[in-house]
UniProtKB/TrEMBL annotation:
Any matching Pfam family: Trp_dioxygenase
Protein name: Tryptophan 2,3-dioxygenase family protein
InterPro entries in alphabetical order: Trp/Indoleamine_2_3_dOase-like, Trp_2_3_dOase
PANTHER family: TRYPTOPHAN 2,3-DIOXYGENASE
Coiled coil: none
């Protein structure tokens, strides 16, 4: 092979790259002699991915349920990947900020429209049978979704609506954690008693949640927006992207989830609980907890009727 100028330039670039980390270029080049060619299935780890679906029952539609939620978790991971790039950029330009927000929103748009898979893609009779084997697990226990919330807005906007007046930026994270809106799904605030749903969730993730609450206290999406120059905060495309993200996550996606759950949970007579035993309607419906990431970007009328006209 002829050592052309472009090839020589690439060799020099490799020398610079490996010299910067005290490595020998020839060693790495020799390693290429023994490296296997990459394949799609190795790169994507297809075999590992397709062996993560383990049913607890013999009902076929349980496989739909498992794969659907695994896809959700993969999309949550994609969202967190974009949020990290945005929130850890010291001075994001307005186009970058807008583009990253729209990426995140598109993932949530996918999540929202995907509820047809849950709503129409499983037989009610099958679901009502295999759901009993899931108790006390619940989709409530998605840790990644909580991380998305912590990284999106100021902590006060995630506090149970009944306790927001008593909590501010000086409140210890541990105390604020005990008054997050989703504690209402499994905690009696009069007695302080928590359900197994909450206790198991906290045992697994509480330490990580507290770290994220502190890390994103000043670097969440809203705080990054407020750190932009005034003209950027007034940029119509950026404001539209912020509002779209807020409404998509806290109203559209939530209502898609709620309506899919209602079809199955309310298919039987009498009062029904979610698999984790939570008060699922008051926990999920946006008009009760009024989860709003960026309240300053909405009018008083929009805030007053949040989640009511869906």
């Amino acid at each position: 092979m002829e050592i052309t100028t472009p090839i020589q330039e690439k060799i020099e670039q490799l020398n610079e790259k490996f010299a910067a980390i005290n490595q020998k270029t020839e060693t790495h080049l020799e390693g290429l002699l023994w490296a296997k060619p990459i394949t799609y299935w190795d790169y994507i780890q297809t075999d590992a991915l397709l062996n993560l679906q383990i049913q607890r029952t013999t009902l076929p539609d349980e496989m739909v349920f498992i794969m659907y939620h695994q896809v959700n978790e993969l999309l949550f991971k994609m969202i967190l990947w974009e949020i990290e790039q945005l929130c850890h950029n010291e001075a994001p330009a307005t186009p970058f900020f807008t583009e990253r927000l729209m990426r995140i929103s598109r993932y949530f748009d996918m999540l929202t429209t995907s509820f047809d898979i849950m709503g129409d893609g499983m037989e009610v009779e099958q679901y009502m049978k295999f759901r009993n084997t899931l108790t006390p697990a619940s989709g409530f226990q998605s840790a990644q979704y909580r991380l998305i919330e912590f990284a999106s807005t100021d902590l006060i906007n995630l506090i149970d609506y009944r306790f927001r007046a008593t909590i501010d930026r000086n409140t210890p994270y541990e105390h604020a954690f005990e008054h997050l809106y989703w504690q209402a799904a499994g905690k009696d605030h009069k007695t302080g008693e928590k359900s197994y749903l909450i206790n198991a969730f906290e045992k697994k993730y509480k330490d990580e949640f507290l770290r994220w609450m502190e890390e994103y206290n000043t670097t969440n999406i809203w705080q990054k927006f407020k750190q932009l120059p005034a003209e950027s905060q007034a940029d119509p495309m950026l404001v539209k992207a912020m509002r779209h993200y807020d409404y998509t996550v806290n109203v559209t996606w939530v209502m898609g989830h709620l309506n899919a759950a209602k079809k199955y949970i309310e298919s039987q007579d009498g009062p029904q609980e979610a698999t984790g035993g939570s008060d699922w309607k008051k926990y999920m419906h946006p008009k009760y907890q009024r989860r709003i990431f960026f309240p300053e970007l909405w009018s008083e009328e929009e805030l007053r009727t949040w989640g009511e006209n869906v």
